[in-house]
Each structure stands twice: as C-alpha cells, then as structure tokens.
Amino acid sequence: MTAAPEPSPEPLGFDPRRAVQVLVETDGGPDGGPGERRRGSGYRVTADTVLTAAHVVRDASSVRLRFADGALGTTEVPGTRVWSDTAADIAVLRIEPGPDRDRLPPRVTPVRFARVTGVVECEALGFPRFKLHRGPAPGHDRPSVPYRDSHHARGTTSPFSNLRRGTLELALRAPEYDTDGRRSPWEGMSGAAVWSAGRLIGVVSEHHRSDGLGTLTAGRVDRWYALLTPEQVGELGELIGLPPDAERLIRLPPPPGGSWLDAAARDLASWVERQWSEEERRRSVHDPFPMRVCFRNATGRFDNWSNVRRTPPSSGTPSPPLPLAGPLERIVEVYRSVPSRRLVVLGEAGAGKTILALRLVLDRLRAPVPGDPVPVIFSLGSWDPAESLHDWMRGQLVRDYPDLNVPSPEGGSLADALLRSHRVLPVLDGFDEMAEDLRSTALRAVNATVTDLVLTSRPEEYDRAVRAAGVVLRGAPGIVLDPLDPRDLATYLRRASPPAPGGDESSTAWEPVLRELARRPRGEGAENVARVLGTPLMVALARTVYQSANGRSPDDRSVPEDLLDVRRFPTARAVEDHLLAAFLPAAYDAPPAGAHAVQPRRRGWDAEQAAPWLGYLARHLDRLGQGGQVVRDLAWWELGTTLRRSTRTFAVGALAAVAFGVTTAVGNIPVDLVATAFPLGFALRRGAVVGVLHGLAAGSVFGFIYWWMSGRGRIKPLQVRARISRGAWKRRDEALRSALAGLVVGAVASTTLILLDRVVVSGLGLDDGQGGSRTAALVFVAELTAGGALVFGLTALLEAPLQSGSATRPTDLLNANRRRVAHRLVLWALVIGPLVGVVEGLWHGPLRGLQVGTVFGLEAAFGAGLAYGCGLTAWGQWVALARIWLPLTGRLPWRLMAFLDDAHQREVLRQAGAVYQFRHASVQEHLTGGLRDRTTAGSGGTSGNRAEPHPRHPSQDKDTGTGVS
After folding, report:
1. Are residues 164 and 118 part of one domain?
2. Is the pTM value of this prediction over 0.85?
3. Pick from 687, 605, 569, 680: nearest CA to 941
4. Which of 111, 588, 712, 948 could form a disulfide with 607 if both were Cys (CB 3.0 to 4.6 A apart)?
5. Domain limits for position 617
C-alpha cells in the first residue's frame, strides 16, 4: 500500500488534495421503493472531519467519502454525520476507519476562516454533474465507466449581492452547455468549500437557475453565527476550529498575494484592530465625541535633530527641529513625519498617553500604508530587563495572539519571525511604571533591540532614566501632552452631560462650575477644579460620578458645584481624591452595557460588595511588584500567588489529596465486594482508610512539587491544544525528556502505594488478600512506571500550539487550559487502563484484565490525572486559590470571572489581550488604600493623606432555494 506524502507547510489555506466527493444513499420510502442516491462535495477540514452542506447528507443511511488525487488515484472511505444544521446548511462528517484510510495524509494544516467585506477573488473545488465523463477511470479495471471528475471553479464574490438572504453570490465561468432543463449542471457542487486568500469564506449551497449558469450561491461563514446558538458555535469550534465569535474572523479583503510573512502580518493587524476597536468602544471614547487632546514639542534630554532627521554627516549644518505639535487626530501624520520612526510621548498621570497610543494604533491600521509594520501596544510595567526585550515581546505576542505561536518556515515561531523582520511597531506604554533602578537598563536595552518604536512615560521619570543611563533614546524626539483647554472642557461637559430637570439642552449640572471657571479662573476653588479637570482621565471620572439627570453623585450628597467649596476640598488633591472615591459607586450605580455583560437574570454586584474585592485585586498587583516595579496586568493564573507559599501549597495539596483520595476510596469498595468474600462494612472501612492514606500521600507529593515549581515561577498557562500536528515528530526530544520524568514519577508513586497498602493498611488489619506476591508488587510498579512514561511522552507529542483566530481574551485562555486538563484526564484513562488490563489479562485471564484495567483507568483519570491537573497546572492553581480559597476567606467573589467581566463592562477594568488591567493606574493605586507618592513636577496635586475609599472588608484585615446536490 502506497503511503501518502506528508502535506507541505504551504499553502496554509486551500489544498486540492483535501476536496471530497460525498456519495450518499438513503433508505427506501414507506411504499418499499428504492432509496435515493445523491452526490455532493466537501472539504477535509481536520485529520478526521469533512465539512459539507447539510442538505447533501439529509436522511442519509450511508455516506462514502471519495478523495481524488492525480498521484494516488481514488481513495474511498466511509463517513458518518456527526453534526448538522439545516438553517445554516452545513454538516460535519467523521472519516471512519477503512481499508484505504491509511492512504490519506495523517495530518492536515488547520483551516482558517474569514468574513467577506468587499469584492474578492474566490475559488471552490467540487464534483458537479457537467463533469460526468465515461471512459477509463483510476481505480477501475473496466475500460469504460461513468465517473465525475473535479472542477476547480474560480471567479469573484461580493457581499453586496443577496443581501436579503444573507448569502454569497459566486460569479464563476459558466458551463458551456445545459442539456437538461430540469436538473442543474452544477448539481453535485453543494458542500464545496469556498476560499479566498487562503481562508474559508463559505460553503456552496444552491444554484438558482434564474441567476444564470455562471452564478452559484454559498452560505457565508459569518452568517453562521446569526443562525446558530452559542452552544452550536462552540461545538463547531471543537470539531473544525471555528472561532467563537464573528469578530474573530479574518476580514477580506486585504488583497491576496505576498509572502507567508506578509500574511502573518496582515492577520496580526486584523486581530490588533478588532481588539482595540472593542476597547475604544467600551471606553466611550467617541461618546458623544472624543475630547480634544493636543500635544507639542517636548524640551529636555532628547537626541540631536540631525540624528532624528537622519541627516548625512557631510551636510555640515545642524538640522532644525521638526514641528510636532497638533491635536490627537494628527498623531499618525506627526509620527510619519519623523524620519527615524522613533518617538517619545510624555504626559502627566491621566493626561491621555494610553489614549494617544490607542489612537496611533487604530488610525494606522484603518488607513494602512504598504510596508508599514503592525503597531502593537506593550505594557512595559511587566518587563524585567534581565529578560531580553525581544524575548519578552515575543512572549506577550504569543500570550495575546496564540496563532503567532505556530512554527514559521524559517524556524522559530511566527511571533519571532515578525519581530526579527521588523514587521511589528512596538508601542511601549508605561515606561514610568517600571522600577526606577530598572529604567536606565531598560533604556539601553531598547536602544540596542528595536528600530521603529513609540515610548510613553511621565516626564520626570523619563528624564531621571536618561540622566541615570547616560544615554538618550537614539533618534527619538519627544512630544508632551498639554492640559485640556478650558473652552474645550466646557464644550465637552455640556454635550456629555444630561440636561438638568426642567432645563433646556444647554442647562446641565456643570453650568455653575463652568461659569465660575470662566469668570474667576484664578479663584482658589476654581483653580483646584481646573487643575484636576485638565486631564482626560479626571474629566471622564467626573462625568461618570455626576452622570445622573440631577447631577448628583450616587450617594446623593454631592453635585459638581460642591467641588468649588474650598472648605470640603481645600486642595486639587482633595478634589481628585473625591472623584476617585466616588467613581466606584457611580460605576456600579448603572447597569453594565455590552454584548458580554452579566445576564440580568443573574444577581449582580453593587459598589459595597465590589469595593473590597477590587481593593484586594489592587493590593495583589501591588504585592506582585518587586523593587518598585509597578504591575498592571491582572492575570487569572496569578491570582492568589501573593499569598504565603505555605498557604498556597496547603490549598493546592489539599485539593490534590481530595481528588486522589476520594477516587481511590470509591474505586476500592467495588473491588473488595466483587473480588473478595468480605462484607460491605469491611469494604467501606478499608476504602476509607485507603482513601485517606493515598490522599495524604498524593497531597504531600503534589504539594511539594507545587511548592518547588511556584518558587521558580513555573506555573504558567498552557498555550497548547490537544491535536496531532505536523510538528509532532520534531518534538521527539521534548517528548523523550517528558517520558523520563513520567518514568520517575510512576516509579515513585507506585512504590509509595505498594508500601502504604502492604505495610500500613495491612498493619491496621484491613488486608483484603488482593495484594498478592512480591512478583505481583513488582509487576504493579512496572505497570505504573511504564504508564507514567507513556502518558508524559504522549502528552508532549499530542500537543500543538493554541490557535484562536484572533486576540485571546482572559476567558479564552482559561477555557483552553480547562479543556487541556480534561484532555489529559482522558489520556491518563486511555493509557493506564488498557496497559494494566493487558498485563493483568495475560497473567490472570481476560476477565480479571478487564476488571482491573477499568478500575485503574478510572482511578488514573479521576485520581492521578485530576490530582495532577489540580496541583501542577495554572488552571489547577486558579481553581484552588481563586475559585476556592480566596472566595472561602471572603477576599474574592465565588463567580470571579463573571465579576471581572462585569467590572470590565462598567469600565472599572480594561482588557489588554489575555489579561485585565485597572482603567488607570490612579484607580488601581487608590484602591490599594492610597496613591503612591507623586514626585512628578506639575502633577497638579499637593501632599496630603488619602482616606480609605470604603470600609475595609473583614477578610482584608489579615425564502429557500433548491439544493445543488
């Protein structure tokens, strides 16, 4: 039998070898007549599944899948329908084992999906009726047989046709004849996958004869999301890799062509744009219009203008400064005017540096210039310069955009390749959030690593870093953000606030404040308010606090005019304190908005509940920072890690002990009842003792390993999925190392269990006679040792990089890690159970082998596998600490991810890829119990103590057409 060639790394999209002719037979009718024979087309989307149209396999009693390859002839295998939906007209077929199954390539590249937003070129490969021929066909001995050959249909499609039906109209080259007016020559093309730029955009479903022979209709991939339930979309995600929502589909065009690196850059640009467009919408940046933020040339320690302008040394004359001033809308224009493509953005806290970075990213992506690198925002607060900037940025890219973790043709990952080829523009946000003693090292590392860049910082922190490093950021001029103009502030507050009761549209609760600012700008109260409301952050907080129609804050004790009262608010710092303290009650006073908001049927949270939990999260980030480092990334896998290591080890070990102990106890009871003559009481007593002993042993072992791994920062989320991939064999060295580790673990675990059962359990008078001889003990140790090596080795081989088709959200990464733990449980059962069963069957007979294999398979999965998942994975650490321990002690809510998502909807948190962050550093610092000391000149604040925003929580004290079948 000829082996199938391995699929090549490219193309990543359409592969003609994976096109399928679907042959269907149905049962006879109720009158006993013959069944129907039907033909359609399909596409092999994964190693085991084929995508086709639902009407092709409707009422099918049998399905055959025929692959046609010019080199190998015809391969036909049986198929089974495993998923179907008539509304979307799509079905998934499983490729069943058969005599020719091995002729198919064992691995295929993953299919990527896209949505069409403009006119694009398209193609589809199917088996229509007009390709029916008679003659010698591959695989047949007869000289003349009827057969259908493939047809590669190419043309264009536009999303602006068939708007009422929501389908794609494919304009193709028409068949040259139509011999039968009753049957379409395209019959049999249904189910063919439609491709554009290497992405699957639809499935052929119909031919409307009134449209002409050169037109086909296809169901759109993005339309599936409106026709299917979220559960169905999730099922398709598991079966064929469909992204969980339509916003994660690649948008087409861009035009086809370019290298694989160009395609990777286009994908990254699409993901970044969708990610930050959603955040921009959620932050209400355009409600009712963006605040007018302006910037100007900064003075201070910046590089020579000749270096910025890249003036040749032979010019002999100094270069004049570039005019870099303008409003926020001109930031892309200003950046492009800098020949060095380097820029430093300075501004006080809340001045709008992050919003400027966001505007730069989105404006560049929405009006791209060929050859431009893709702008990506990196939060510098989490970078330790002990790690190279390249490696750190690669880790951030892989964390937030998992598709970049796949191998590139040149070696390494796509993230590596994009960084090496300078196709990423790093927007390094929050330089001032690094520890002060790290900034000078970081500045030198930035100079040595990247070319194009944008860096944001507060002015004083940047100036001190330059002085300490003794170097400037080469080729980088600076701009500084100005305070908001009072006239722009007045216009914004009038239009962004509801009219006062009984007043006209120009009468808002802010009128007394605005009149005072215009009349007496140097008045003591007016000057304090003007200074605070000079930054976009504080204006946004003030708008949230006084957003009711009567302009009162949620506690009904303050209106905007009160901010002018120097007795209550003697300093600008006091005004700022008041707005920060009142922000949470105001944010939780209104229901959250957005597609992912917590459902109304479920109980939500109020400010009194949310404040202590948010305070704990803020202090958690504060404790994560070391040596003055400011940590902003709220990662689910790190929640609880600031607890004492002994406390964390106890929680993780206890969970592993319960998982292993309960499973072992329950598993021993039926064994004693079936295999011995002992009564139920003995079986229960022995099961309880064995469960306690085994649980204590497992808890101690997994607790110790967790204690060692957590001290070295080894508990990280898995960026993998369970799937055989092309690169599996390349991971053989890693698999071998994992197998050796499993060998040791299996040997130690089995020896410990033997000693417990033979010594302790028997010493307590609970020997059930099942222990056997010394030989039986050695066989038991050998079984578990070999099983551990197999499980660990196969785990490394059967894991491929996680793919999402878009930016990853925190819940996406959490769910992927939970699924991976579940997959490992299944692997433990499928390896340990059969292995032990075969050995025991050869020794004691097949019945004994079946019994013991079943018990060991279940115990391995729900005992050892679950204990491993709970004790040594990021998901297990999350469960033990963030889902059990911290809620049990009152520090966090039980529905933690729902709480974080709710806070995101209320704009208390923001989302940055796979992590959350507080809306602004000032909000985070306020929730820790007090803002850090401000040493920045011109920060607009004076010294003073901050009051607790809320009392401390007690726990803190410690129409349809005819198918084309």
Report:
1. yes
2. no
3. 569
4. 588
5. 605-639+892-932
